[in-house]
Amino acid sequence: MRPSFLPRLVNGPLFDPVVYVRILNERKSLLFDCGHFEGLAPRELLSLEAVCISHTHMDHFMGLDRVLRTILHRDQPLTIYGPEGITGKALSKLRSYTWNLSSGYALEITICEVLPGRMHITRTRADAGFDVTSRSTVPREGARISEGPRYTLDAVILEHTVPCLAYVLKEPFHLNILKNAFAGRGYIPGAWLDTLKAHIFAGRMDELITVSTHGGTEKVRVSRLKEELVITTPGQSVAFVTDISCSPENIAALKGPAHGADMLFIEAYYLHELKDHAAARGHLTARQAGMIAGMLGAGQVFPMHVSPRYHDRLGEIRAEVEAARREASEPGGSTGCTL
Ligand SMILES: [Zn+2]
Ligand SMILES: [Zn+2]
Question: What InterPro entries is this protein classified in (predicted)?
């Protein structure tokens, strides 16, 4: 299966957790947390549609300045999602600069503050010196915070001595092109396949698109091409979980939205030998991260935000995650945080 999302753990397992997700066939991407990072090119930041902040401890938020510096001149808007308090924190950042020469800039930033059952939405624009241009509050059903043709985004409010969001990015369904269905119909694969996918994701089944054929080109309806060439399978999902206490409440809240994530990025800050440290600071140990991954039935698991003290013991972190994950995956396997 050709994936639709290409996630990258920008800083690797150590240091600030930053996950960049490219949405394939769209010039769009998402960023999950933005502490200190260097491994993203300006062109990658320019395609950002949204920045999803777990919480505003410095190691998760300081890089927003760098994002802003790179995209300031672009026309496409940016959305910032974050937990309780994100509106004031993001506006403070924006307002800490001088904007007397920004009147020609079209950038609009929408800040979405995720709260239980509702979301505060605040719009602000560069050409208004990042003054607030509108405020509203919308109700929120379940964990959903965004819904579009290519992906949905869920946010789960968790506890980390402060409210902290875990995010789940999901593809509504996955389109698989049946390559061996081309020959008998005279179709030649080409860029029109991307157009076909875009129409199917958007539900535009009556559109006619130009298909390359051995005889030249042909106009064919999307619904017919879908029947002839496409099978749909469950969509890809990516979960981002960091800086959380290993509490029964946090685990219960994650279970629905993050269940069965194909790729789970999860903090493994300490080895379990420092579980008391982890509990005092609202962090997970590697063993707890593995246990949560097993309980969620996650596919691939990527430990991240590992404390720099373990820079030469990453093998032990990974081994602890894997062992706990295997144990929790077994029927009747260990659950709970009293590991
Ligand atoms: Zn934190
Ligand atoms: Zn952190």
Answer: Metallo-B-lactamas, RibonucZ/Hydroxyglut_hydro
**How far away, in angstroms, is 58 Cα from ligand 2 center?**
8
pLDDT of residue 334: 57
Kindly identify the ligand whose nearest atom is closest to the C-alpha of 15. 2
What is the number of domains present in the chain?
A: 2
Q: Which two tokens stand for residue 17?
A: 């957790």
Domain co-membership, 44 together with 125? yes
Residue 207 located in a structural domain: yes
CB 215 within 8 Å of CB 185? no
- Residue 243 CA to ligand 1 center (angstroms) comes to 5
DSSP designation for 235: P
The model's pLDDT over 271-295, given as tens digits with 9 standing for 90+, comes to 999 999 999 999 999 999 999 999 9
Is the pLDDT assigned to residue 36 strictly greater than 90? yes
Same domain, residue pair 40 and 111: yes
Q: Which residues lie near ion ligand 2 (Cβ < 5 Å)?
A: 59, 243
CA 83 – ligand 1 centroid, Å: 12
Q: Which amino acid is at 8?
A: R
Distance 93 CA to ligand 1 centre (A): 18
